[in-house]
Amino acid sequence: MPCAQAPVGVFDSGVGGLSVLRPLRQQLPAESFIFFADQAHVPYGPRPLEEVRRFSVGITRFLIDQGAKLIVVACNTASAAALQHLRETFPGMRFVGMEPAVKPAAEQTRTHAVGVLATPATFQGALFASVVERFAQGVSVLPQTLPGLVERIEAGDLDGPEARRIVEAGVRPLVAQGVDTLVLACTHYPFVIPLIEDVAGPGVRVIDPSPAIARQAGRLLAEGERTAATGAAGGLTFVSSGDAAALARMAQRLIGETGEARRAEWDVGGLRLSLTDGWSGRG
Ligand code: DGL
After folding, report:
1. Where are the chain's structural domains?
2. Which of the following is catalytic: 98, 186, 196, 251?
3. What are the pLDDT digits (tens) for 189-198?
4. What is the pLDDT of residue 271?
5. What residues does ligand 1 touch, defined as CB less than 6 Å away?
6. Gap from CA of 77 to ligand 1 centroid (Å)
7. How far apart are alpha carbons 14 and 242 in whole angstroms?
8. CA 232–ligand 1 middle distance (angstroms)
């Protein structure tokens, strides 16, 4: 069983999960983190749920092999496709997943209309239907995808003409329908909050659930008595199935974090990941 000094595993298809890593690092500075970005397969959003589930199982195995004591699925698409399956497949592991923040949005809206920005796969999963059914009585919830925006953010374009065009095409119709609250249900989107706010206008509130997700991770660690000792140094390693050095550069730019960068490769069947640079990960 992993000990209190073991790392917390955090994963996403790409740099989006860094928006969750940021509050995790702020709230849990003594913890060590392994941040895994599946950049060989980004974007996840247009893929079938079954495929995203397969990737999520492979990444979870990899993080468990690195000694992870808790896994944060810092990806709404992977949470929609796989969270329940991961909990069933790895009963000894604790998971924190992303859930569209429809509950706080439904509580805060005055126009009784909220927009949810997410990938197509997130809207297909049972999780979205379930949060709408549980928390949005009397409120209209308008789903909206922003095709191509994840790719723009991966490329480091947070406010260029193409990113703006995509946000305008998605957000303007929601505002025209009276939405006063927008839920960010894709972990890439917090990096374009200034752009979304600019397009939506001052009357619209944007909800980013990542600080709440980090608090939940802290609670689970405390419950399992797995919190790292106060004052421990903490640490951060980036692993990518794509270009690990580019991931580390983006982390520095997007959240001001630096760490060791490692590359992992999927095997031919796409079920197993292994590090390609001889690093054991356990230190
Ligand atoms: N950041 C992810 C999410 O929260 C995945 C986006 C993608 O790869 O399409 O949904």
Report:
1. 8-98+211-280, 102-208
2. 186
3. 999 999 999 9
4. 63
5. 12-14, 16, 42-45, 75-77, 119, 122, 150, 186-188
6. 5
7. 9
8. 32
Fold held by 8-98+211-280: Rossmann fold (3.40.50)
Annotated catalytic residue 186: yes
Kindly report, residue by residue over 31-77, the tens digit of the pLDDT: 999 999 999 999 999 999 999 999 999 999 999 999 999 999 999 99
Q: Of 20, 75, 21, nearest to 52 (Cα)?
A: 75
Prediction pTM value: 0.95
pLDDT tens-digit map of 136-157: 999 999 999 999 999 999 999 9
Cα–Cα distance measured from residue 78 to residue 16, given in angstroms and rounded to the nearest whole number: 12
Give Cβ neighbours of residue 202 (< 8 Å, ≥ 6 apart). Answer: none
CB 119 within 8 A of CB 77: yes
Which fold does the domain 102-208 belong to in CATH? Answer: Rossmann fold (3.40.50)
Q: How confident is the model at residue 283 (pLDDT cuts 50, 70, 90)?
A: very low
CA of 31 to the centre of ligand 1 (A): 25
Same CATH topology for 8-98+211-280 and 102-208?
yes
